[in-house]
Amino acid sequence: MTHFNKVTIIGVGLIGGSLARVLKDKGLAGEITGTGRSRETLELALRLGVIDRLGQGFARSVENAELVVLASPVGSFETVVREIASHLKKGAVLTDVGSVKGELVQKIEALLPDGVHYVPGHPIAGKEKFGVVEATASLFSGAKCILTPTKKTDPQALAAVRAVWEAAGAKVLVMDPDLHDKIFSAVSHMPHVAAFAMVSAVAELNTGTEDYINFSGAGFKDFTRIAGSSPEIWRDICLMNRDNIVEMLDRYLFSLSRFKRELLAGDGKKLEKHLKLASDVRRGLG
Length: 286
Hints:
By secondary structure, the protein is of the alpha/beta class. It has helices at about 15-25, 40-45, 60, 75-85, 100-110, 155-165, 175-205, 220-225, 230-240, 240-265, 270-285; strands at about 5-10, 30-35, 55, 65-70, 95, 115-120, 120-125, 145, 170-175. Strands 3-2-1-4-5-6 form a six-stranded parallel β-sheet. Helix 4 packs parallel to helix 5 (about 100-110) and helix 7 (about 175-205) crosses helix 10 (about 240-265). The two termini are about 35 Å apart.
């Protein structure tokens, strides 16, 4: 398995911090440098032992790094790569943990100098709480990790990044970048928007003395758990994959409208049919 003498993680939050813990626990990295916009977060990561050294700016932090991980909000990737591209050493592997691929992959590839190898990645792991204090080496255990190489992707770099995620306990799948964005608009991005919208719909309702939301039980909390996710991260994801998300929202609105029509018509037979179809699928997910 590949050992990286120096690793730089840009964005040491839940995902970046958890990957750093994996690299340390599995002995896959010599020194891990952390960099990002928040000095406070980086100092906390250092105190927690997640990273070994504080980086001084993006460009200087990646110098001589054998592996560089983009784990900042996905909307920052292009700007960060423009800043670090000329400072990456020949043979360095650049990877990321972003939830959007598609055109972004092409843009990043076009910015990199010859001899720097880019392997786009997306671990399907996380929780509603975020930040480096929540980072844990077990976060990716049993989770899927999608790698989205292109014709330009170096096979050895792809194998090295795959090995890192397998060491983290993830099941690695390889997928076309555009297909990735279509699939995850349906199973992740649109559901997040739906959860945020549900909380927004209920948040301002009031009995006159108390907010409706204070009566929330397990059902509401389970359905809206992901609405506790980072607004900054989800703003970027929504905007960068907006065409696919809008298409999936239209499908969701069609399904909601169908339920609405059946309720208005008092059509219990059709209502139960569609409830059962959904229930069977959901129970099949485990």
